[in-house]
UniProtKB/TrEMBL annotation:
It comes from Diplocloster modestus. It is found in: Cell membrane. It is a multi-pass membrane protein. It comes from the Bacteria. The chain crosses the membrane at residues 20-38, 76-96, 108-129, 164-181, 193-226, 238-257, 339-360, 372-391, 403-423, 435-455. This is Glycosyltransferase RgtA/B/C/D-like domain-containing protein. Keywords: Cell membrane, Glycosyltransferase, Membrane, Transferase, Transmembrane, Transmembrane helix.
Length: 463
């Protein structure tokens, strides 16, 4: 046997071993999500009851409800969530219909409905691993990123009850992976298809993730026009863009066409939802009467002062991004939030030190794909928070971190980039460096178990 054959066999066995480790990790993460999903026999996740109205309709009628169907309109708000995409609820209904073949136990049926979020969560973990292998080739660095994404308590919680946010996070992971693949392979057919899939999933998930649609468009166009061997190749951009668009329309177009038909051209369903709310909501909750900061006539500067200085919007949003459970009622111990503040602070410091390398757009007269990638990752991090802040200002004051969750992948990427850059600068001893990185993973996992215990205690008290 030649040396080349031996090397190929060694590489093949190493890849199989790595794949097995990755699959075991995804499986264990899914089990952890399942344990969270089993704890509560009540639909007490934020908006879960309104989400279940759609799921229950799908189970009973096996057809897609209109947003203004009287059987699912919330008696307080006067509308339903069926005006916007509810793809995860279709999967929930499938799981419940299967469960109904064996039992009518309500706890089991609720648990079955939550399996959709569990599977989207497991999918996010899988793509997070693939992203880590590309962005952070050092194994220890990659595992910090994987642990930070997988075991953020709020991330785990979102993967344990019926919602659309779990699919939104999954879509962002697919999109970021498609960005990496596209830059590696010069936007070949496969990477274009992956981008189309990710964009379709994003469009069919939750509006706070829509910043990734915008970022994807500009990253795709700019990297083809500026970074390929042939500059300003509009023909290639259009040809490849049509592939992305075709996949997007094939997977997501039907929903927006359906909305346009049902709601007189309102393909997003937002105007139709407000009209429905105006007709059916309790008086204080009608869109024209429901109090908002914007409606009160407060100027933008005064509104920001009110949100950040008086109401501490950023503090409440940060805490609920890390983890607050059961309709914003069950918090983690204060030390857990403090530890995450420290983790993010170190990450930010490391990124600031590395700014010239991290955000460089040109070198030797050439555009840098990695620089463009990092700039759009920053933009993808910022946009969900702007949308979240605007919603609290103009729609309904809800300082909830789940609305900022689409920033999870970019945030944890920059956090790990900064932490590892700082550690590698300050700690030259390889063993000590590795021990500290392992310690970060252990602490993150430990906080997630603290969150599980806090949630379990609250569920037992209710059950």
């Amino acid at each position: 046997m030649t040396k080349i054959q031996t090397r190929d066999m060694t590489t093949g066995s190493a890849q199989k071993r790595q794949l097995a480790i990755d699959l075991i990790f995804v499986g264990l993460a899914a089990v952890f999500f399942l344990l969270w999903a089993w704890q509560s026999s009540y639909m007490d996740g934020p908006d879960e009851l309104m989400r279940y109205d759609i799921v229950n309709y799908l189970v009973e009628h096996w057809s897609l409800p209109r947003g203004d169907d009287p059987s699912i309109i919330n008696p307080i708000w006067g509308f339903s969530y069926a005006f916007q995409p509810y793809i995860p609820h279709i999967f929930s209904a499938l799981f419940i219909r299967v469960a109904k073949l064996f039992t009518e136990d309500m706890h089991i049926l609720i648990f079955a409905g939550r399996l959709a979020s569990v599977f989207f969560g497991a999918g996010t973990v899988w793509f997070t691993i693939k992203i880590a292998r590309k962005l952070l080739p050092a194994k220890a660095d990659g595992w910090i990123f994987i642990f930070l994404v997988t075991f953020l308590p709020q991330m785990v919680y979102l993967n344990s009850y019926m919602n659309c946010e779990s699919m939104a996070i999954f879509s962002t992971a697919v999109i970021v992976y498609s960005w990496i693949a596209g830059l590696e392979r010069k936007w070949d057919l496969k990477s274009c298809i992956w981008l189309g899939v990710g964009l379709a999933l994003c469009a069919l998930s939750y509006v706070t993730a829509y910043g990734f649609l915008l970022c994807s468009f500009f990253l795709f166009c700019l990297t083809i026009l500026l970074c390929q061997d042939k500059k300003w190749d509009f023909k290639s951009m259009i040809q490849k863009g049509l592939v992305v668009l075709a996949v997007f329309l094939l997977l997501a177009g039907w929903w927006f066409i359906r909305n346009a038909i049902l709601y007189q051209g309102d393909f997003l369903g937002l105007t139709a939802r407000d009209i429905c709310g105006e007709l059916h909501a309790q008086d204080a909750f009608k869109p024209s009467k429901h109090w908002t900061i914007k409606m009160s006539g407060v100027s933008a500067s005064e509104a920001l002062k009110m949100l950040f200085w008086e109401w501490k919007w950023h503090s409440d949003t940060f805490k609920s991004f890390i983890g607050i459970f059961k309709e914003m009622a069950v918090l983690l111990p204060t030390i857990c939030y403090t530890i995450y503040k420290l983790i993010f602070a170190v990450g930010i410091l490391g990124c600031i030190i590395e700014i010239p390398k991290l955000l460089a757009l040109r070198k030797d007269g050439k555009w840098l794909e990695k620089g463009l990638f990092n700039w759009f990752m920053i933009l993808a991090l910022i946009i969900p928070n702007i949308l979240n802040l605007y919603a609290s200002y103009a729609i309904d004051y809800q300082p909830q971190g789940r609305y900022s969750m689409p920033m999870l992948i970019p945030l944890m990427y920059f956090t790990v980039y900064g932490i590892t850059a700082l550690l590698d600068r300050l700690i030259k001893n390889k063993l000590a460096n590795l021990v500290l990185k392992i310690l970060i993973c252990v602490i993150v996992l430990g906080i997630s178990f603290v969150g599980f215990w806090s949630y379990r205690v609250a569920c037992l008290a209710m059950n």
